[in-house]
Amino acid sequence: MYRILYRSSKGALTELNDLGRIPDLLADRAGLFWLDIAGQPDASKQAGTKWADVVTPLLRDTFKFHPLAIEDAVQDSNVPKVDDWGEYLYITLHAVDFDRTIEDIDLHELDVFLGRNFVVTLHEEEIRGIDRVFRAAVRDERHTRRGSDYLLFEVCDAVAADYLPCMDAIDAESETIQDEVFDKPSRNTLNRLFHLKRAVLNLRRVLSPQREVFNKLAREDFEPIDQKERIYFRDLYDHFVRLTDLNESLRDIIAGSLDTYLSVVSNRTNEVMKTLTIVTVLFMPLSFATGFFGMNFFAGLIEITENPDPVKLIFFLCIVASMVVVPLFMLRLFRRRGWF
After folding, report:
1. What is the pTM for the complete model shown?
2. Which residue range is the domain that position 304 belongs to?
3. For the CA atoms of 36, 59, 110, 46, what is the dihedral angle to 10 degrees?
4. How far apart are CA 150 and CA 138, in angstroms?
5. What is the number of domains present in the chain?
6. What is the pLDDT of residues 29-87, one digit of tens each?
């Protein structure tokens, strides 16, 4: 799916759906247009055409972008970066979304080409921030009044705005797991902790390079970006510095939760082992008595008949009583020593 928003040199906004108009839009140096390519067209999917085969001719033949920039744009999993190609910039960013079903983040790559009078955004998956900015730009011409560089800032700001809710969701999930660790930890608790840890690590891999992208946009001279607009990218840089610090805090919290889980499980295992040890020790005198007096050597001594010998009966009862008294005495001794 693709959509075009065109602002003429007179300030009129028009939504277009004809890619054939792009050469005319490029020729209008006083105007501005935004081409958003979101996902692969349905017809191309049905025909089995790859994403690169659909996008490459448009970027190569219509916009005359460099082949290396096009190659980066149609490939997945690029590290956030900014490349200066003179009259235009190629920028790679990542939008995020927290998937609560798997307790992990979804990274959506966003490729941007920025020129003096155009912004081209490419993403194979839906990005909510892009949709918000596009709808706002259609309704209000002020979003496109200040040029392509400010429109780029709004796109980047919308992408950055989704990071904090994602981190808040991770933080809330970690608090829930912390309560579960103390109440009733299970193997699923450990799996959820590892999922959150992986989510934080994935965030860390994109936050640092993305922060440097905005640092370069704020500090270096690029032809498509006016000097007066750099301050906005400086604000984005500061925002990502805070996000990086917050992500480090989340990593420490999750690491602490993992250590707490291991300690709780270890303590519970020790309690179980202590209980089993006490039971085993309590049965040791019983096992000794039954084994010792169960030998054939004492068979006649403790034999009980219909008319038992009083001596034998008393001896038998003493053995039974000792088998009851000794464990009770041991149990009381263990309790006084605080062993359970």
Report:
1. 0.77
2. 271-336
3. 70
4. 15
5. 2
6. 899 999 999 875 544 444 445 667 778 999 999 999 999 999 999 887 678 999 999 99
